[in-house]
């Protein structure tokens, strides 16, 4: 999926955050729904009990006493009046009808199913002018005045329950129950608590994911450095059991690779040393030959055997010499090689610059660039060096004007002792180790070396080194 992050850290964060946000939203929905249901049940129960008590009291008095009682029992939040006939009702939204029907069932359970009553929900602002006149006739304290002012501010465009119950004497008692915004408002404190909890869990999740993925990043960096330096310091075997196990396995692999390379170097060095004695004896016996033509052939073959042995050792030595990495001026190195080639009559041009020192193994990188430039001037008469130094990589392209290489053999020429020149003449074809050594050095630095034929003839040797 394109929406998924590419890194393991990003994907873990994406999964955790998605799950947390969905869980918090579902949890908030359930809490708010349950809270609403609980508040509705509590309000309905209190309202029902209040109406039931008042109706039962009024049933035991006559009309004059009923007027006095309802005037005393009427409050700002539950206005109570008595009339000879009920007030007309209007249809409202289905949600309002649902609340009204719920309250009607509760009142029937309390007053009896034979009691005639009407329940509706209105959205008009309740008429509290009579109540205000009632309060104006009494002295109020400053605290009561402040509370009354607060309630007046809350009495704006909210729902009102209208309940009308028929008394035993035929009159109707009417109850107007106002629902203030404080009763139906969003629970901001609960929402703030959920938000703080969500932020805290997100922060802890990010820290936990970073803590879990950090060993993988360390292991990846170590594997990348291993390609540059097989003798790098081993990983610290600390942390969780899984991390320690991975670090221990990596260190074991590194030790085995280093031991394998050392054994191979020792074997080649021993073979080279052992070959010197028979080659020397053969060279001495060759000098005793009377046939000059045959003697020259023997000498040429012996010299090539010595060159191949030395080139093999150079191949191993340049890739795994143990030379320390140092900041070096690659631009100065190229200019020095340019001057050396021009002393031998070859033409070498350089375009582009390298502004900052590059961390490399100086002798190995010099050997790599020397092989590329020598190949260019040997087969293509002249060499052009193009430099492209960016933040991500250093790219050095050595271009010649020679015949190029068949596309099918662009990779084979990097194999040790592989030569396009079949004459086995060291002056024209060498021993076939130059490009192998150059690529080995490039990859030991974490880069690579590739060859491309030019469209107009010639060959591009592209050396890429990472920053």
Number of strands: 11
What class would the helix/strand composition place it in?
alpha+beta
Give average pLDDT, whole number.
Answer: 77
Number of helices: 12
Low-confidence stretches: 126-157, 422-428
The shape is: rod-shaped
Helix content: 55-70%
Order of helices and strands: HHEHEHHEEHHHHEHEEHEEHEE
Distance between the termini: 31 Å
- How many structural domains? 3
Rg, alpha carbons: 48 Å
DSSP strand content: 5-15%
**How is the largest sheet built, in terms of strand order?**
6-8-9-11-10
Largest sheet entry: 5 strands, mixed
Care to describe what's here?
Helix 7 packs parallel to helix 8 (about 240-285). This protein folds into three domains: about 10-190, no CATH class; about 230-320, Signal transduction histidine kinase, dimerisation/phosphotransfer (DHp) domain (Helix Hairpins, Orthogonal Bundle), CATH 1.10.287; about 325-465, Histidine kinase-like ATPase, C-terminal domain (Heat Shock Protein 90, 2-Layer Sandwich), CATH 3.30.565.10. Helix content is about 55%, strand content about 15%. The two termini are about 30 Å apart. The chain has helices spanning about 10-60, 65-75, 95-110, 130-135, 140-155, 180-185, 190-230, 240-285, 290-320, 330-345, 360-380, 435-445; strands at about 80-85, 115-120, 160-165, 170-180, 325-330, 345-350, 360, 380-390, 395-400, 450-455, 460-465. Strand 10 (about 450-455) and strand 11 (about 460-465) form a beta hairpin. A five-stranded mixed beta sheet has the order 6-8-9-11-10, covered by helices on one side. With about 475 residues, the protein is an alpha+beta fold. The chain is rod-shaped, with a radius of gyration of 48 Å. It contains twelve helices and eleven strands.
